Every structure is written in structure tokens, then in C-alpha cells.
Amino acid sequence: MTTETQINNLVMYKFLAELRSGKIEGLFISTLEHIKNLYGKNLYFGEILGKHSEIEFELEESDIYIVTEDQEYIARTIEIFKGYSISGYNPFDYMLLYENNEDEY
After folding, report:
1. Domain count of the fold of the chain
2. Per-residue confidence (pLDDT) for residue 102, from 0 to 100
3. Where in the sequence is the domain holding 77, given as residue range(s)?
């Protein structure tokens, strides 16, 4: 459930993970609180950088950058894109569901 306080504290972020085999990028909107909870989580992207690439890593603060905190701009962007994922990869969509059991995804 989204509250008025959460809506007024949205931030547009750029996700950029530079890996040996390439980079993964995305532009999305979230709250600072949600981003802080995402740090340290394992993300699993599968073979997005080619066959047998199996991309999985722990998200670090250096992988996320603030683009803007302008609430009017963010509200308009959400209206235009009909959601919080703008382009590329949103790390929230790739969190491992079973972090404690490596055999299950």
C-alpha cells in the first residue's frame, strides 16, 4: 500500500552494474528506504549477457545512482511510462527469492 509520504519521497535511480562480460543498466523509480533494503541482496539475471553467462551478484551501493529527486518530474514520468520501471533492468525484478537455499530460484 502506497502512502502519501512514500509518494512524496520518490527518487529516480540509474542502475549500472559493470561486469567482466558486459554491463547491465536500468532506469527506475523507488524510495530511498526500498533502495537501502536492496543493498546486499543477491540478484539473478540468468543469461542476459549471452549463452552460459549466468549473471548473479550482490547489489552494492556503487551500482545505484540518483538521477533526480524532483517530485513533479518523477510524477510526470510515472504517468508517461505507466509505472516505476522506465527502461532497461530494474534490480527489484531480479532479487533471488530463496537466498538461503542456493538450489532454488
Report:
1. 1
2. 52
3. 4-94
